[in-house]
Each structure stands twice: as structure tokens, then as C-alpha cells.
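Feature request, filed as a ticket because there's no other form

It would be nice if the structure record came with a short human-readable summary line next to the C-alpha cells. Right now we just get the raw output. Example of a typical job, pasted below so the devs can see what we mean:
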Amino acid sequence: MTEAEMRDGDYQQQGYLNRDFRFFHINDRRKIEFSYHYHDFDKIILFLHGSARYMIEGREYELKPYDFILVNRYDIHKAVVDFAENYERIIIYINHDFLKRYQDEKYCLTDCFEEARSRKTYVVRFPAAVSADLYDDLQTIEKDIAHEEEHYAGSLLTRTDLIRFLIRLNEACQQEKFAFHPEARYNHKIIDIIEYIMAHLGDDLSIDEIADRFYISKYHMMRIFKADTGYSIHQYITEKRILKARMLILGGMPATSASLESGFRDYSSFCRAFRKQLGMLPSDLKTDLA
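Raw output as currently delivered:
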């Protein structure tokens, strides 16, 4: 398998990416029930055709052709698709460290994802001419992949054209500020709760305390949170804490300190939760200081 793949029908939802990037162009009518999930990599989707909605961290977007969806790593998301017509999209999985390699004091290829997160909107709708140029770039990458074995340094050409596309996408996100304005449906209370949780992962977060803080019945809160995110509040907090701890450990922090920093008060409980969620122990991670 080459470093960047495109094989129709070979799209799999995975928790991890073992290469710098993967590329998919999918056009089908398979009746797939997508479930809420997250990835350990960043993801770019260009929606081309069909009837679909996209749910990301409590927000719901009605997609239009040539919408770009920017999914930050660890963001909980899923697609809801009406398969009465073809669902066509281009998807790129991108290793976060690969993006971070291309940066200086003025730019980084993660800027578009940071922009989406800071603006609290994940769907980007560019003017037609900008979308057409970016789509052309993606078609070039697709052709590169199809002929990698025929061309001199074919995989390098694919990588070069991908980087060119990422530069132009980031530039468009910087220049077309109104592109980040597609309407999203969401429950303001749930978004406020999510933002509170993310800002206080290291604190004690009980369901009773959260319900009291937001003046809402805890049973009603639990019901609507599950409906809007696909996760129970307890599951959401635990998974976000594990992901925070993982990033801290990979950054060189001792596992015991990372567990406390992420809100776990008992190290053995932290290890059990870590292994259940990630399939490994904290000690199995290779840190930046190794």
C-alpha cells in the first residue's frame, strides 16, 4: 500500500493513522449508519453530492455541495446521510505531526483547524471560484495517486501537491473570513456545558455540580446531552480526560502527573480507563523525551 491511498470502497473509520495522510474519493449509495466517533488525526472532508448532515461536538450542519468540513483530532462527530441519492465526498486523513512540521512564526498548516475551533464552526463555505480552485487541487492529488507507480518520485509528487492544497486551503480560510458562517443547529445549553467541561477537565466534574451550575434538571441534562452528542456526560468527560492525558504524556509529562492534571484522582482507575479507551497502558506511549 502506498503512503497516500485512494481506493473506492476502502474507506474505514479508524481511531489512529499509521502514516502521514490518506486520501479517499467515495461515491456510493451504501446504506451506512455512521456512529459518533473521534480520531487521533485531523480530517478534511469536501462534500460533493447527496443529502447529508454533519454533527460535530453538539453542532449540526446541513451540508451543501462544495462545503468543506474541518474535523479537529479528538472532536466527536458523525455524518447523517439520506441514501436515497448518492453520497459523494472527498476525505483526507492527516497526521497532526505531519501538519506541524510545516510551520514558522507566521504560519502553520494546522491554522485552518485552529480557526474552525476558535470560531466554533466546523463547516467552511467558500465563494464558488475559491471552491473550484481547491477542488481542482484535490483532483490533481487523486490523479497523482492513481499514477504514483508510473511517475518518477510519484509519492513525493503526491505529497508536494497535498502540501500545496493545504497551503491554499489555509490561505483561503485566512482571507475568506465570511466562509466560516454556515448556520449550525445546536442547543446553547449543551454547547455551554461542553465548553465548561473542556475548560475544567482537571477539576471535579460531577453531574450534580454541572446541573446546578447550569440551572437544569440533571436527568433532563443527561437526556439532551446524549441526544445531541451521542455520549453520556460521564463517558464524554472520561474520554476527553484520557485524550488530554495522552497528549500530556506524549509531550513528556510523567503519567502520574498527567492523570492528576486530567482530573483522575486514582492512578489505578486512570490506567484501567486508559487501557479500555486506547487499548494500551500509559507506560506504552512513546514520549517526545524518549
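Something like this underneath would help us a lot:
The two ends are 29 Å apart (CA to CA).
The mean pLDDT is 87.
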